[in-house]
Each structure stands twice: as structure tokens, then as C-alpha cells.
Design a protein that fits this description.
The chain contains two helices and ten strands; from the N terminus they run αβββββαβββββ. By secondary structure, the protein is mainly β. The protein has one domain (25-118). A five-stranded antiparallel sheet has the order 1-10-5-4-3, with no helix packed on it. A three-stranded antiparallel sheet has the order 6-8-9, with no helix packed on it. β4 (51-56) and β5 form a beta hairpin.
């Protein structure tokens, strides 16, 4: 008696990849810096498991590309950090915040903060 192997269609995999969030294009707007002042950070936008845009007061944007992928950061889109300084630096560690919050997330190192200008998408 022969066993048959069922093949699943590839279309659902293709659709899932197409639905993945896109990282907005950005052009460098100066030299990278190691630290940004905490009091100037107005918003953080998690773009993926490896990219976070920090929007500063005044609208300046710093893109931080982590040296390594941080598991589930892009899915959860939130993180925490602890620092004794008044700055967030490339030597600091972030921790993914899970939902429910009683589940610990990955801890990952930051990269340098690259000032960028986000490219507007044409529609």
C-alpha cells in the first residue's frame, strides 16, 4: 500500500510575505551618533526585528539598526530599557515587552543612531 503526500499550495505563504510591514526608505542626514538624549525622544516606531526609528522633539528622526535581529520585536512593536544616564546609547540593551506582560521577551543590544530623512511614499 502506498502512502500519498499531500502538497500544500504556496499562495498562502506568498500572501503572508506580501502582508509583512515595509520599512520606510530613509536617506542618511548626517553622521551616526552613539547616544540620543532621553528627554528629546517623543516616539519610537518599531519597523522590524532589527530596525527602530526614534522620532525626536522637533521632528528629527534617528534610525537604529540593531547589530542582530531581536526576536519578536517586530511583532510586539514595543520594548523597554533601563538606564542610569540621561541618554539612550548604542551600548544599552532593550527588552521586548510581550502581551501578556508577565512573559519575558528577548533582550537585545542597540546599534548607532543614524539621523535620517524618511522618504515619502508616492501614491
Amino acid at each position: 500500500m502506498r502512502k500519498m503526500l499531500a502538497l500544500l499550495p504556496l499562495a498562502p505563504l506568498t500572501l503572508a510575505a506580501a502582508d509583512a510591514p515595509q520599512i520606510p526608505e530613509a536617506t542618511p542626514a548626517g553622521k551616526p551618533v552613539s547616544c540620543v538624549p532621553l528627554y528629546q525622544i517623543r516616539e519610537s516606531r518599531v519597523r522590524s526585528d532589527q530596525v527602530i526609528d526614534f522620532v525626536m522633539s522637533g521632528g528629527k528622526v534617528y534610525r537604529n539598526t540593531l547589530p542582530n535581529s531581536c526576536p519578536e520585536l517586530g511583532f510586539e512593536e514595543r520594548f523597554g530599557y533601563a538606564t542610569s544616564q540621561s541618554e539612550l546609547c548604542s551600548t544599552d540593551i532593550i527588552t521586548v515587552i510581550h502581551s501578556p506582560p508577565d512573559v519575558g521577551g528577548a533582550s537585545c543590544g542597540l546599534g548607532e543612531f543614524q539621523p535620517v530623512t524618511l522618504v515619502k511614499a508616492h501614491r
